[in-house]
Design goal:
The protein is mainly α. It has one domain. 69% of the residues lie in helices and 0% in strands. It contains three helices and no strands. The longest helix is centred in the middle third of the chain and has 22 residues.
Length: 94
């Protein structure tokens, strides 16, 4: 497999894992999703540094990591009395 194909796999992987973390509704699963996405972003950063990826890719990776860190921080500040929800049942009455 050529280097370009490998880079594409890593890039796709971090974006998919990032999106999975951002779309996760179950707060019990969210920490694992965030960790998976952070690991993938770090791998993509390492790959992009060694391959000379462009500024846009580096900026996207930095932005993704900042958002994941903020999401993780919001979990830590989440009041324990708030019930988690795995669906949008709360919107049905609206």
């Amino acid at each position: 497999m050529n280097t370009g194909a490998c880079q594409g796999l890593y890039t796709q992987s971090w974006k998919e894992l990032y999106e999975a973390a951002m779309c996760e509704l179950d707060v019990n699963k969210l920490p694992q999703r965030i960790s998976e996405a952070e690991s993938a972003v770090m791998r993509a950063r390492e790959l992009s540094c060694t391959s000379g990826e462009g500024f846009d890719e580096q900026e996207s990776l930095d932005d993704a990591m900042c958002v994941l860190n903020a999401l993780r921080g919001s979990l830590k500040r989440r009041p324990s009395g708030i019930q988690s929800t795995t669906s949008l049942d709360c919107l049905k009455g609206a």
